[in-house]
Amino acid sequence: MEHTPTRTRQFEAIFDTHHRAILAYALRRTTKREDAADIVADTFLVAWRRLDDMPSGAELLWLYGVARNVLANARRGDRRREQLAENLRRELRSVDMAVAEHPRADEVRSAIATLSPDDRELIQLAYWEDLSPAQIATVLQIPASTVRVRLHRARNALRTTLERTSAPRPHLAVAPTPLHSKETP
After folding, report:
1. Per-residue b/e over 169-183, b at no fewer than 16 CB within 10 Å?
2. DSSP structure string for the chain
3. I need a labelling partner for 140 at 20 to 30 A (CA). Which of 43, 89, 120, 180 fits?
4. Residues 59-81: pLDDT tens digits?
5. Mind listing the pLDDT tens digit for each residue in 135-163?
6. What's the number of CA atoms in the CB half-sphere (13 Å) around residue 162?
């Protein structure tokens, strides 16, 4: 495909003559104006690339055929994305159920939320993603020895938080302190 002034003028003439018809075609077949604009843009991108294949005298019909294919590809892509989204929603529901079934799930989530962002990421990568320190080092782009030290500290911080929040709290009988004492310190 050679980019010459003649070729550019030929394309511009085809675009000027037919872009409204292709836009109307796309608007009648989509629900969003943005989608129609994308169909038109993709149609004319194909037209530019395949300008030499466009039959002289039947440009509009050829463009309709291209627009039809572009629209079909867009719809297939939408269906694939929707199916993927549905699969992810289904998987997320099953993961949520598994996490929710753990007796201390809310307590663990709350404890993790108290950690610093760096510690939280380390704990999540280690336990939720089941990564080794070496793998975490690759993800975070830091030395594995650094990960091991930081992970050790993060685990200790998490353990301390969990012990503090889940330990039974004994009821301490404390004598009330008078608000006003006759004795001064």
Report:
1. eeeeeeeeeeeeeee
2. ----HHHHHHHHHHHHHHHHHHHHHHHHH-SSHHHHHHHHHHHHHHHHHTGGGSPTT-HHHHHHHHHHHHHHHHHHHHHHHHHHHHHHHHHHHHHHHHHHHSTTHHHHHHHHHHS-HHHHHHHIIIIIS---HHHHHHHHTS-HHHHHHHHHHHHHHHHHHHHHHHS--PPP--PPPPSS-SS--
3. 89
4. 999 999 999 999 999 999 999 99
5. 999 999 999 999 999 999 999 999 998 88
6. 13
